[in-house]
Amino acid sequence: MLKNYFRVALRNFWRNKVFSAINILGLAIGISSALVIYLIVQYDLSFDKFHKDGDRIYRVVTDIKFAGEPFYNSGVTDPFAVAARKEISGIELCSNFYTADDIKVVIPNSTSEKQGIFRKQKNVTYADEYYFKLFPFYKWIAGNTQDPLKAPYQTVITESRARTYFPGLDPKAVIGKQIIYDDSLKTSVSAVIRDPEEITDFTFREFISMATMDANHMHNEEWGSVTSSNQFFVKLAPNQSIAKLNSELSALLKKNNKNEQTSSTNYMIEQLQPLSDIHFNDHYDNFGQRLAQKNTLWGLSLVAGFLLLLGCINFINLTTAQASQRAKEIGVRKTMGSTQKQLVFQFLSETLFTTLIAAFVSAIITPWLLQIFSDFIPAGLHFDLLNQPQLILFMIALVLVVTLLSGFYPAMILSGFRPVLVLKNQAFGGTAKTRRTWIRKTLTVSQFVIAQFLIMATLAVTKQIHFTLSKDLGFKKDAIITMRIPWNNRKPDPNRDVLLNEINKMPEVQLASLAEPPASTNTSSRTIKYKDGKKEIETDVQLKYGDTNYLSLYRLKLLAGRNIQESDSEREYIINETYAKILGFNNPEDAIGKMVGEDKKIPIVGVVSNFHQSSLHTPIKPLAICSAKNNTYSISVALKSSNGDSKNWQNAFAKMGVVYKRLYPEEDFKYDFFDESIAKFYKSEQDISRLLKWATGLAIFISCLGLLGLVIYTTNLRMKEISVRKVLGASVRNLITLLSTDFIRLVIISFFVATPIAWWSMNKWLQNYAYRTELSWWLFPLSGFIIILIALLTLSIQTFRAAVANPTKALRSE
Amino acid sequence: MLEFKGISKWYNVGGNKTYILNNVDLIIREGEFVSIMGPSGSGKSTLLHIMGMLDEPSEGYHYFMGQAVHLLKEKQRSQLYKQHIGFVFQAYHLIDELTVYENIETPLIYQNVKTSERKAMVADILDRFQMVGKKDLFPTQLSGGQQQLVGIARALIASPRLLLADEPTGNLNSKQGEEIMEIFKKLNNEGVTIIQVTHSEKNAGYGSRVINLLDGRIS
Asked: What is the pTM for the complete model shown?
């Protein structure tokens, strides 16, 4: 029987090529986007899911409140781990490791290309001996598998690192080889492990024994200073109360951190962060790996759902619209003894057939889609149907769901026809059968509501991005490049002054200045106290280090006082308006000469007008600019206008490169355009916008396909009417209007439904920004206009053809 | 074999009952060849549809092969006509997407006949109607007479006891019509009860009895 059904399905499929193509295209787009998004979501959700007893593994993180301002740190204070191991009960196993990025590696007597010198190696960590016990998923290849990190100067490396450092050597031969870190730590390889293949944020490739740090007194014994480099993971004994442990851990910190005075606005507590939270919680970093946002994942899933739904709606609309063509077959089958159930089954298997083809098409186009979104998609993500059984299961489930969703309603309608009505010779199949068109209309309206909503959202997001990128941030941002110079413990670094001088002398350069960090980059901050007679004002103040050129380079406006003077360490501050107001000086002049700070009083010498020292997500915060050459390893250079000739600038960059290389032969000369760096703040918005544009395009495309299908169908039905009207003298324009009006009405209804939804949700989205564009009223009519125009164009493909057709043709056949 | 008692069918048009069939009584015995005649709109087709259980009467008693059809549920009714009744239509009503072979096979599928048996039965009937060479053609590739032959073959494939024909020759020329009537005659002689709706006195002449219908009543 199934064979029979499929045979009919196939023949029907060929007979209605246009409708079949529309159905398949719509469904294939929906299925492909569902696949891509499933891959993304599935990938992000599977991070670190494989750990043994993973539900009992937590990271201890530190939450801080400084002057009422919350800070979150993924690490603990240095002595904390050791103390917690001794004093806290309920911990079954714990491990402390210290991430060390950009470390220099030297392999003595190396024959490799780079002569054994590797600068800025990533994925290196100092780990204690418990690390491999807490995370036993690593597979050992060679060496000491029991306690490879117990003794000082031991290193465990992965296979890939072994190949890089000791090319051509067997892993066994690598054991005992020397690796020197940061020119001073001479370690030897104690074990080689396989590179983990699991999806994990633990991407370390080199583990130096923590004992090495101990032996070299590299620890910061202070209890009050926390760094995210110092990671502490614990595995709890079964059935522990998280709340109780949180308070015990915090109490341990408080007991030892004696210097700190705590209050409701000033405290530091420890929290247990579940392992499963690490990949998602943006309060805490995950060893510099990419964080996924659950909201984004939800949004993506929603978009996929929308596109899938649009494809299903097309199918439902076209199938029910064509129902009368199938009516005869249904009537005959029923008189031949088919039950309604059998017919439902038949139509569902036809739908299944279509969906299967669509699934096949999407399996082909998905890799191409992944390519398009490659910079949006995590690097470790693959599409390989043959080796991803889970993916195949998902596709099967998807096909079944889509089949039911799009096939059930038409199947019920079709199989419900009464044979007698159908078989009463030919009377059927006309325009009279309008009983169920309202459902079709509703579905079409909902399609266009989705499409309209997406257009409006895209317009709003684009407008906000434009707003953020073109907003006057309070400083100059174009024709400025930034570069870093290496951190150097020889203070002050004479080379830096030489570099700065030489750059300043170049004819293409307007001005160069020390700037740590540049005007608009996340800044370090510090609590600064100010005693105003009796009242003490404690503020979290952002700090920027510059030199005398800083203000003029970034064209910051000095409201009062004078510029800073050059100095090796903090001597005087220029503060921004916000900070001046917090300190109680409504008139900038009043702030001049006031002293802030506790141990070391520092005078305020100037006040600058506010500028956005960070992205527009955050409001302008209190800020102080000072000159402290010892803390400054970044240079900003303002270039002279190139007058459209980029050669000048290229010239300058080349010269800077030469000077830089001469002064810092071990470093590579790299520079960034400042305005591009600012644009990068909004990468996630740019990504969302790009994704939205695609989703919108696809949604419009699918909806218009559906519209086209419906208009083809109705014009075919009304061909006789059109011909008669034409014979009676209707113009082509009359006819096109006649045929389009019904559909355009639906699109207009959808506009009125979509507008409030879009207005509400876009307003909500804009709340994320401290500085946001307005949702102008014209946004909505504009999107309505766009969609109506597109709909009209789509309709005209068919209506025009119908309107200019020779009327005698249709009339003769009657 | 078939008995109608007080069968009526009406529609409500603007609050008034419009009768299609009005209090029809009739008995048809096994082996009869009955022709229903009457002008357009006299209710012939409706009567035939009710006999075939494709339509339900508004009131009345309906017995078929000893069963009270008016008391049966939809499912049982469909079971009954599926087994015992074959239909032939004026417009043939073949499924355009199926070949001759598949069209004839369809009723067997719905009666859950096994594939091998189906093959044998269809081959048999194709042979009987001399259409073996046309079995892979689609209905649109056949002439009207040939299509109607397929329609009859399809109606007979499950060996029904009763054959209902709604103007079977209405779309055919006279020669083709005669052929069809000859086939009916032969079938009747083999024991199949036949009820046909027809306009043609000549066709009615092939039958054993004529029922005249006028404005929904037997006259």
From this structure: 0.77
